[in-house]
Amino acid sequence: KMAADTSVEILQKVLENEILQTTKVVEEHLDAELQKLDQMDEDELERLKQRRLEALKKAQQQKQEWLSKGHGEYREIPSERDFFQEVKESKNVVCHFYRDTTFRCQIMDKHLTVLAKKHIETKFLKLNAEKSPFLCERLRIKVIPTLALVKDGKTKDYIVGFTDLGNTDDFTTETLEWRLGCADIINYSGNLMDPPFQSQKKYGTSFTKLDKKTIRGKKYDSDSDDD
């Protein structure tokens, strides 16, 4: 018992010491930065300010360019020909291949509308799968809904149905955002190693597994691989 207590005390001392050391390093680093700022002359500060303004101006120009190319809103494109034109002029494109009769496409629409406004660095489109047989054949799209994730004009990844989104109709917008972040098709600021639906499970949210019968049934027949 005594030996155990002693080891705990030693461990505590080591930890406290480490924390103090880290704090000291951080403080020294801050002091050095502050000193650097103090020693800056007017010209250097002015140059720093100019660089900051230029960066802001550049970011603003980039934003305007994106908006002029139809980023910032979730849009339907009328034909396959439009698809090729749209992916040619934008670096990152998410295209939802949908069908009017598929209920799950409406769920996808709801989340994509939110994300298009949030991530203007990426173009969000939807295309009716029945009006684009050539593209669906070429991209091997068999399940609806499917999101094709296109980077630099090449299809890099697909989100097929809701399998990657926690396998539930109730997935959150954050879950879809995380999955798009994994594909590097949007600028994602969260932690990719921590999917949002994992934390839902942790807190005991009731998770609706998709019932195979409903998928095969009339309502969701377009989610099955059979068509």
Automatic annotation (TrEMBL):
Keywords: Cytoplasm, Cytoskeleton, Nucleus, Phosphoprotein. GO terms for cellular component: centrosome; cytoplasm; midbody; nucleus. InterPro entries: Thioredoxin-like_sf, Thioredoxin_domain. It comes from the Eukaryota. It is found in: Cytoplasm, Cytoskeleton, Microtubule organizing center, Centrosome; Midbody; Nucleus. The keyword Phosphoprotein applies. Residues 53-181 form the Thioredoxin domain. Signal peptide: none annotated. The keyword Secreted does not apply. Forms ternary complexes with the chaperonin TCP1 complex, spanning the cylindrical chaperonin cavity and contacting at least 2 subunits. Significantly diminishes the chaperonin TCP1 complex ATPase activity, thus negatively impacts protein folding, including that of actin or tubulin. This is Thioredoxin domain-containing protein 9. It comes from Centropus unirufus. The gene is Txndc9.
